Protein 1
Amino acid sequence: MKTKEMLKAHPAEPLIDSQLLADCINACFECSQCCTSCADACLSHEVTDDLRDCIRACFDCADISSVTGLVLSRLTEATSDMIKTQVEACLAACRECAAECEKHADSHQHCAICAESCRGCEQACIAVLDAVGTVV
Amino acid sequence: MKTKEMLKAHPAEPLIDSQLLADCINACFECSQCCTSCADACLSHEVTDDLRDCIRACFDCADISSVTGLVLSRLTEATSDMIKTQVEACLAACRECAAECEKHADSHQHCAICAESCRGCEQACIAVLDAVGTVV
Amino acid sequence: MKTKEMLKAHPAEPLIDSQLLADCINACFECSQCCTSCADACLSHEVTDDLRDCIRACFDCADISSVTGLVLSRLTEATSDMIKTQVEACLAACRECAAECEKHADSHQHCAICAESCRGCEQACIAVLDAVGTVV
Amino acid sequence: MKTKEMLKAHPAEPLIDSQLLADCINACFECSQCCTSCADACLSHEVTDDLRDCIRACFDCADISSVTGLVLSRLTEATSDMIKTQVEACLAACRECAAECEKHADSHQHCAICAESCRGCEQACIAVLDAVGTVV
């Protein structure tokens, strides 16, 4: 990912620390890839009720984290309410998806990796929200 | 849009009124299309600072409303925190984008139509959040 | 959907007939919603190998048709190779997804509706490609 | 990105070399981030006709590469026509966007980085299409 370089080359200075912002953007894209891949992998097993919840959480989290990565890539001018709430939605999605995947982490390696990625994205979202809070 | 028919054909009963849910899903997709189209139309004019803010708001709102429409299309089992927060993000996005577009509604017809669509989506999100509130 | 109004309010004239373009954009968004909903509905049943293929086709088609609707909403200046190929990808996705859903149309009403929507989008893509062909 | 690990943990063996597939998925996500960031950076300058084309190419390429990354993340069972055409659309998008960004690479560092990312994604798409060609 060239996120950090892109933020540096942008004419506007981001309102929050650019390393912290780049980390969150990258975490969002990684999380979206892992969740998409994990849902597909889950689908290859026999789909029990428990795994059904996992697949659904993965799909929602993939969509939400992907869009959050895009929105944050445009966080150049102001920290608006819209961006803040979208990061909160991403935080909630990562938390729920991680909790689902952790239930299957022992039996499915893809759930273990996906949960780890969701937890990383959750932390990165918290860091961005904290930084935004000190600015606004 | 065949949203209402699809919800009816789904084996699970949505937790909130299906007409209200279908209305919100359709409003999200319409809003995403209008915002994408409006940003592109704005770009065809001479881009002043004011229009710059409008283009950015349109792009964020297009991405956020589109993903909210997808997430709501999977609102079949439970009303989770993740879905609720995503609808709140959509509500914030529609509100901000409408406010930007309304500034140019007199000079640009595409901004007037886009603002109307954002306001419609804002109302539909409020209705879904109210309904979810009575369930959870 | 306010697609037709938005195209009319755009400062640039689309290179192909605007009714035909609006029809295709709307068909893309409808298809994306149906496929997302159908995948979720399929997941509620006992997932056999046959339904697994259907879920996967629905997810790919949902993503591809959604992005095609957005790209076509920006078809204002020129009909580029990029847009043409994206519509071809959408055509292929709709065709494959319709074929999968048609296998289950008798047992699942959501597959029947989704197949109908995919076929409609397939036809709209063909009409756009034909019109683009006469321009380029 | 944990793409390689996720492909390894997936129960199904990808039909093409998994390193090559992971490289292309990662290139798609990187390209989507760069294009989104570059469009936003371009918008911060005075928007001339030339930059207008660049912004539009960036937005199309961002959307198309992002969805291609998701679709390829599900390339587990078969190399379908739908996936092949989507990679071709991504190849066309990367090629056009790189050509636009290269025009401004001397004056804007963000265009130089974005062009480099698009060219990388273009090569990764060619490699996947070559590999798919030997399988189908």
Protein 2
Amino acid sequence: MTMTDGLGSRSWAVPGGGIPFPSQPDEPELTGADVLCVLNTGDEPAELRLTVYYADQDPVGPYRISVGARRIRHVRFNDLIDPEAIRLGRPFGWVAESQVPVVVQMTRQVTRIPGALALCSVIAFAGS
Amino acid sequence: MTMTDGLGSRSWAVPGGGIPFPSQPDEPELTGADVLCVLNTGDEPAELRLTVYYADQDPVGPYRISVGARRIRHVRFNDLIDPEAIRLGRPFGWVAESQVPVVVQMTRQVTRIPGALALCSVIAFAGS
Amino acid sequence: MTMTDGLGSRSWAVPGGGIPFPSQPDEPELTGADVLCVLNTGDEPAELRLTVYYADQDPVGPYRISVGARRIRHVRFNDLIDPEAIRLGRPFGWVAESQVPVVVQMTRQVTRIPGALALCSVIAFAGS
Amino acid sequence: MTMTDGLGSRSWAVPGGGIPFPSQPDEPELTGADVLCVLNTGDEPAELRLTVYYADQDPVGPYRISVGARRIRHVRFNDLIDPEAIRLGRPFGWVAESQVPVVVQMTRQVTRIPGALALCSVIAFAGS
């Protein structure tokens, strides 16, 4: 059996991260969030190492995220806690590196105005 | 007569899919939806094979989508039923493969908060 | 004096066009619109030829759009009338071709729900 | 010690800029804004030169923006004042050039309808 490489790239970057704050407290699905979305079309699990960059301190990481072979995974930055939680409302950027090719997207949901909902999404910038 | 290749790529990927749920029930045009948009500028019909990837099970597909020569097609993921419907609110990703070059975009409309409307869109990641 | 080429590409494509309809009638700046945004950083005026593709008929065009040297231009698809106006609410896609390199983006504003506003934007897919 | 180049490109462009106007006056964090987001993963500070292009006059710049080694920076176009402030509501485009590779994104927040919030974001077009 041969492993086949999946679609995509081994490094991905997003400069414009931030966990929207405040957000609607009552419904968990309406919490403001940046969501990291990973697609691994290959035959081998992807082991991602995420590094978070800030305006005023050294980068923090790696956050480790596994995505099974032929699987997706959507992870809220709000839920990343190891090595440390990301402070709400603080600007950041990030780089995700994987030992196998994957495709990476970021989607943001903002609910800070009651009764309003805003979304944006980008395919991350693909490095080498 | 010679067939001329159209603009684009033969494989496209989006990691961050999901059919927004719940959504406003009364007006069909306001239903929450992920929409797959395909542009075929070439002289030959494009026969797309769409594979849907999940977090916790094997991929499902191919969903078959035809786009005529020099035509576009906008397909709501909500309307894909063969080989099986996509469950509302469940995270997914997808790969679209075509035997001829096409250009592929994904646009999402979310209407889960009454009186609010949110949109996002990405040009899919172009593979080889 | 030598002409210097600007940044970008000579052909650009967007599969997911559509002029949002209905929209708020009172304020012209809040009309639902797809906006074509062109940046010409070069020393020569860009003469764009826009072709609009549909799901169920042959493409229409060229729509001609000029963008001066070292200038931008933002054009609402709603305002394109020659060779013919684009019907509101009808799905389309498009290709913009220029004799010199330019950069092209599409931004959509939707105001079909009173009191709500939705935006999305993509850098168009760059062809050769 | 050797300097290592960071991820990305040395020139980036966005055709579809504009500072949304009017916007909600009371809360500074809800002001309508285009935000330039830069990620510098390299070992050397990035010195960006931003040139702003208009529809009806010569480009203005350079606006100078520094981003430390292994840092991000999010800058609102509203806050750029040297060589001159950017008029609210006026269409523009821009090119950001850096002496070292960086990754650049633009995110827009629109609050012109009271009680509504709209967002859009693009990774800028990467030049050479």
